[in-house]
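Pipeline run #58 for the internal structure catalog. This entry was flagged by the ingest filter as a single-chain record with no existing model, so it goes straight to prediction. Upstream metadata was stripped on purpose; only the residue string is passed forward. Reviewer on rotation: M.T. Logging verbosity set to normal.
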Amino acid sequence: MDPSDMGIPPIALLQLLERGTLGVRATDEFRSVMFRERVDLATLISKEEQVPLRWFHSVYPTLDVDHATVLGFMLAEEAQLTTFGPLSLPLISASSVLEVVELLTYLPVISTAVSPQFYPGEHELTIGLSGQTNDHVLDCLAVSYCGRALLRLLDILAGDMPAVTLKLSWPAPSADPKHHLLQCERVEFDAPTSFVRIPRTSLDKVCRFSDAVAYRVGVDSLRQNLASRNGRSSMTERVTRLIEADPAKASTRAIAIELSISVSTLKRRLSDEGTSFRDLRQSVLQAVAIVRLLDRSLSVSRVATGLGYSDVSNFSHAFRRWTGQSPYEFRSGH
């Protein structure tokens, strides 16, 4: 297997296969894929490695967005707290919804297929969910899984939370609109981007199994795990995370200094991975702009300044180039 493969926790797939949820043919196909790649789920679990999402293309050659969305929801519905590997202990012992949400910082420890971005607003916290596979269908599967799993997780840990919603940026599956997995009032499709929205009043809600000591121990372990993984992550991943941390100040020189490499080395390594600093920065700026414009407590001017634009006009030109709309037109339409 390619160590750079992006995927999901292996226990999530194991639970589906053991319960026969995917059917006999798909179960046999997954086992055939693992046989060809000389690996098994028990080994992946013990090594805390991921199930490559490309396996789903092998098992489902005609996989499309509709089917990928349903598969993502299936994985999320079958998920147990043990599914989340190194995240399980701190998740179970978190004292509040806010502490649960903060653990998404360590999501790369169990899955590199989705990148979370945090946007605190006056009345809610918005968590952007961006697929990282460079394959739209697999991105939809990964984001569906991550978003739906977060909704279930919060319900399990803190009680029913109907005000927490998941927005997905593609149309609702049409092949089987009455599928029970799609009947959820807290999931909406055709959003301008994919995100989970949590009201600020929900962030302080107390979790059922709070254990401050266990939480600290779990987080310390996660920090070490993430630091170790970061040393093996791709340049694209590392640069994207640094841009997301402060998009207004992100520049090739600033990022190169942060990574202790030269600007020319940064550009060359990104080129080797099929991308560029400009493309990564534009992608992050677009995603951040969309989410912040959805928060009406922020003026367009404040959104522009927060993204590093010297005036609203420059920001408006860039936003129209990305979306075909001005920031004001976008906001009035949503």
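catalog note: Residues 63-212 form one domain.
catalog note: The two ends are 43 Å apart (CA to CA).
status: ready for reviewer M.T.
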